Amino acid sequence: MAKICVLLCFILLAASGFANVSGSEPKGKKVGIYELKKGDLSVKFTNWGATIISLVFPDKNGKLADVVLGYDTIKEYTNDTSYIGAIVGRVANRIGGAQFTLNGTHYKLVANEGKNILHGGLIGFSDVVWKVQKYQNEGDAPHIVFTYHSADGEEGFPGDLLVTVSYTLLGDKQLSVKMKAKALNKPTPVNLAQHTYWNLGGHNSGDVLSQYIKIFASQITLVDSHLIPTGKFASVKGTPYDFLKPKAVGSRINKLASGYDINYVLDGGAGNKLKPAAVVYDKKSGRVLELSTNAPGLQFYTSNSLKDVKGKGGFVYEPHAALCLETQGFPDAVNHPNFPSTIVTPKKPYKHNMLFKFSTKAPYAS
């Protein structure tokens, strides 16, 4: 049944231009579109970057809308520079000076943001074709599993790494994301993040400044002018970064240079168990997103760099058209011994879990 669904999907997408792009993927590797559906929640993916390309669910009046930013064609994803919807890595976020030392060996990485490296380098995990290991769009838990083998020396990182990302629909409007990575021969830093741009009003509804957010974090990691952590922490209380109680995204954004782009230290620390990370609520549509994770950090980003980006249906995305909730290890952890370690070894694999719950049940008074 799953194979039939994929075949039908390719036939339909070929007519719309949302299909394989010749010359845009390595020889012998195909890029496709896959859908998971359970009840009135539908999510579509592509194996280019293991990317979420749409997520549709109803508002409080039953009207369906796609709540993630994206493009109409695969070719546009291959040309994307904003990591829209993708898995980013081998190390998400930034590493200062695009370098680090591990077990006495100094590694120089491929810088792609000035002197620093962002989201894995010039060709990170968001810009490669992932293998579809499993795909089942039926039963109680429809799921898709993507895998990628990152070679020793890729973008300067040491060691071969086998990465797996699983997306599964659970219960009532729940999306589980499980990321695993195994170092095959050398210790290496690993920090994966899911980089979907969310707008609960709909991807074409304008900005997210009136949407409310609560972030379960009492501290942030301080950064310099290049967004590289200094190694110090700061309390959010009394600052524009305080979302311990729900506030509108735009309520204090004018006190920041361009918007939010900061790592929050989630209350509860790291571990195997899920803990609450954030809740987003759009009063107009009634849609709610609740996010929990086992990661220690959450990068809250208000799409400050989007400008005149032509998205789905020709809609143009501008700054603050969406927000990103990137659960992660702390940025530049390889250069800060006081941060939770992001080093993975053959005996110590990487496990990063996220759970998104979607509803129209108001989570708090606002």
Decide which structural class fits the backbone: mainly beta
Portion in helices: under 10%
- Which value, in Å, is the CA radius of gyration? 19 Å
Strand content: 35-45%
Number of helices: 2
Query: Segments where pLDDT lies below 50 for 5+ residues?
Result: 1-26
Strand order of the largest sheet: 10-11-12-13-29-23-22-17-20
Mean pLDDT: 92
> Count the strands?
29
Largest sheet: 9 strands, antiparallel
Shape: globular
What does this structure look like?
The protein is mainly beta and 366 residues long. The strands form eight sheets. It has a nine-stranded antiparallel sheet with strand order 10-11-12-13-29-23-22-17-20, with no helix packed on it. Strands 16-27-24-21-18-19 form a six-stranded antiparallel sheet, with no helix packed on it. It is globular, with a radius of gyration of 19 Å. The N terminus is likely disordered.
